[in-house]
């Protein structure tokens, strides 16, 4: 329950400081999590980024203020973080489907995004197959790209990265190179929160490989860890997305384990990704 309470504390902090210039570092600190892992967990559980949640809430309150008060539109724009009336009007129309002036005259419907509240519901009837594995450090080889995890940029960029790798034959090369204990091609998330670029992450598409690094590829050492290894059954990407959500919404709150903060792995086979019988895995370092 401490994990759920920490998440609610971070949400409450966002609500109490909606009019401030919040940073992901300040918010994550309330949950005793790194910016990377808080942003990732929040997006998995809510299907939106922290930045998008803040935007939706601010524009919801701005709409209420427009319809209830006589405050000038430019003053409301500044209050909710917009430098110009034009920027405010553009964001307002994108959320509500009408302009601030139309909202003031009650000429359309407004869209309200309400404050998030964590509720414990009865779940878990659907079993999760997992095992705990301890491994020494091991090496993977592959290619990587850097993504920002602010505003969910990584959620857009990573699928495009996979698309390119599938099209240019890199995934075929990685399957052929694979000679380690983990069979398949890996998606590896590496948190760079402690590095100079505090809001960036590295995403690797790689495979476990013992030997000298092949030409054109990079090497990453995965640290010794205790791993929770989850089975994933079903077509991509839905099955993988659902498994992640179930892990963070059901397994972590009740397991007694915490995320160890080191890279996590998705393991993909070379089977048909649309097959209902497709088998994949998620490896999460735990403590």
TrEMBL record:
One protein family per Pfam: HTH_18
Keyword 4Fe-4S: no
Domain HTH araC/xylS-type, chain residue ranges per copy: 8-106
InterPro entries, per database record: AraC_E-bd, Cass2, Homeodomain-like_sf, HTH_AraC, HTH_AraC-typ_CS, MarA-like, Reg_factor_effector_dom_sf, Tscrpt_reg_AraC-type_HTH
Segments forming a coiled coil: none
Gene3D superfamilies linked to this entry: Homeodomain-like (1.10.10.60), Regulatory factor, effector binding domain (3.20.80.10)
UniProt KW DNA-binding keyword: yes
Keywords: DNA-binding, Transcription, Transcription regulation
Domain of life where this protein originates: Bacteria
Entry protein name: Effector binding domain-containing protein
Organism: Laceyella putida
